[in-house]
Design a protein that fits this description.
Helix content is 38%, strand content 13%. It has 480 residues and is α/β, with parallel strands linked by helices. It folds into two domains: 6-254 and 394-471, Amidase signature (AS) enzymes; 298-376, no CATH class. An eleven-stranded mixed sheet has the order 1-3-2-4-6-5-10-11-9-7-8, sandwiched between helices. Helix 8 (269-284) links the parallel strand 7 (255-259) and strand 8 (288-292). It binds glutamine. The site of glutamine has 14 residues, from strand 4.
């Protein structure tokens, strides 16, 4: 039962063929059995989960397709009464007084929240190794990374510990770990999902989104969290369509663009081949595939690593040792308290980002770095505007390589940053993007394909991904 899809579970629950208590207990048992090796979870709320399951079982009328379904949340997302750390020592011991809007929405939909998943500290990273607390392992190859920063959320779904999770994606942190862990990961359009109560990293880029083992599962979770929220002024007042109604429509007549610039130097040739293979499959299913160009792609990494750290340096100024989390002991003055709390509380990657961002915003450099980066960001967005005049969706590889051995890129920040080249242009442009499993490498590792869509057109990327999934069906491939 724990191996099936969320949507199948949902039907079984509605038909009374199983109970939420039974499935929640099975997931908790699976976590107990596998999480010593996988390390997906930072915290498990067994009592809370079983109470929610019992309440779900007692309801005569299901609240939604998520009612009774065991899920988990990246530890960037606030949970009232349950510690939330963003993977950082500076927040350890922080018990949120309220739920994030997405947490509240999942609870209102009847979902059972099992616990909080591991991540890179403040979601800064691509391997989940910068977490202050533990490392997460890829369930398909335990000596390798699950990707990051939402590595715990991807690994938990892959390891059959739960039926879906939420992550956050600022430069690829949902799509990249999804690709490395053989699961579906969706970053919605910027503004589609509320960020109220989600720890801020880079606010012009951050989005919350789902992981599932199938495209339909990701769509059901997105349905549960999407929509305008009065508590988040940046959430968009745009109607939320049904994300499942059109899922099986196929790709007949759909125009799909393959961007030349996404087949980068140094890419694993098997990944390039798998992407072209995916394009052929969709062509055979009736899509029109053509090569397109997104000429400013090569600047995206540099632009991101100015803008994201700049926004992070501002967002992270609030961790001062006074209001929440870690406070240095015995400081004699206020400035000393700030300095020591921050020096003790933040890890090396977070400090690197704060320094990069503070430098980029400082007097004399602001125009040369930050303003210029914003201008190039506009060019990147315009590339996509042009492309979407010709095509309906863009198909590309999701990552340049498969999962790499843990520790391999830890001493080389640039090598780590390069793992995001294919995912971050989408964030800079605010578009929806998803990664769907498309192949298994000769070494037995997962390979994902990325679909990018027009703003607020998640339905079309879901439909295209489903058409590919139907031909591939890698969702039944579980880790041994
Ligand atoms: N890996 C990228 C970074 O380190 C993206 C992280 C994310 O999307 N949260 O910034």
């Amino acid at each position: 039962m724990i191996h099936g899809s969320l949507s199948d579970l949902s039907e079984a629950l509605a038909a009374g063929k199983t109970s939420s208590t039974e499935i929640t207990s099975a997931c908790l048992a699976q976590i107990r059995e596998t999480d010593d090796q996988v390390g997906a979870f930072l915290r498990i709320d067994e009592a809370g989960a079983l109470a929610a399951a019992k309440a779900s079982d007692a309801r005569r009328q299901k609240l939604s397709p998520l009612d009774g379904v065991p899920v988990a949340l990246k530890d960037m997302i606030l949970t009232a009464g349950l510690e939330t750390t963003a993977g950082s020592r500076i927040l350890s011991g922080f018990i949120p007084p309220h739920d994030a809007t997405v947490t509240a929405k999942l609870k209102a939909a009847g979902a059972v929240i099992l616990g909080k998943t591991n991540l890179d500290e403040f979601a800064m990273g691509s391997s989940t190794e910068s977490s202050a607390f533990k490392k997460t392992h890829n369930p398909y190859a335990l000596d390798r990374t699950p990707g990051g920063s939402s590595g715990g959320s991807a690994a938990a779904v892959a390891a059959r510990q739960c039926f879906g999770t939420l992550g956050t994606d600022t430069g690829g942190s949902i799509r990249q770990p999804a690709a490395l862990c053989n699961v579906v990961g969706l970053k919605p359009t910027w503004g589609r999902v509320s960020r109220s109560g989600v720890v801020a990293f880079a606010s012009s880029l951050d989005q919350v989104g789902p992981f599932g083992r199938t495209v339909r599962d990701a769509a059901l979770l997105l349905q549960g969290i999407a929509g305008r929220d009065p508590h988040d002024a940046t959430s968009a007042d745009v109607a939320v369509p049904s994300f499942t109604d059109t899922l099986e429509q196929g790709v007949k007549g759909l125009k799909i663009g393959l961007p030349r610039e996404y087949f980068v130097d140094g890419m694993d040739p098997e990944i390039a081949a798998a992407t072209r293979e995916a394009a052929k499959t969709l062509e055979a299913a009736g899509a029109q595939v053509k090569e397109i160009s997104l000429p400013h792609t090569k600047h995206a990494l540099a632009v991101y690593y100015v803008i994201a750290p700049a926004e992070a340096s501002s967002n992270l100024a609030r961790y001062d040792g006074v209001r929440f989390g870690h406070r240095a002991k015995d400081a004699k003055q206020l400035i000393e308290l700030y300095e020591r709390s921050r020096a003790e509380g933040f890890g090396p990657e977070v400090k690197r980002r704060i320094m990069l961002g503070t430098f980029a915003l400082s007097a004399g450099y602001h125009d040369a770095y930050y303003v210029k980066a914003q201008r190039v960001r506009t060019l990147i967005r315009q590339d996509f505007d042009e492309a979407f005049r010709e095509v309906d969706v863009i198909l590309s590889p999701a990552t340049p390589t498969c999962a790499w051995p843990l520790g391999e890129k830890l001493d080389d920040p640039l090598a780590m940053y390069l793992m995001d080249v294919l995912t971050l242009p989408c964030n800079l442009a605010g578009l929806p993007g998803l990664s769907v499993p498309t192949a298994r490498s000769s070494g037995g590792l997962p390979i994902g394909a990325q679909f990018l869509g027009r703003p607020f057109d998640e339905v079309t990327i879901l439909r295209a991904a489903r058409a590919l999934e139907r031909e591939r069906d890698l969702s039944t491939w579980s880790p041994s």
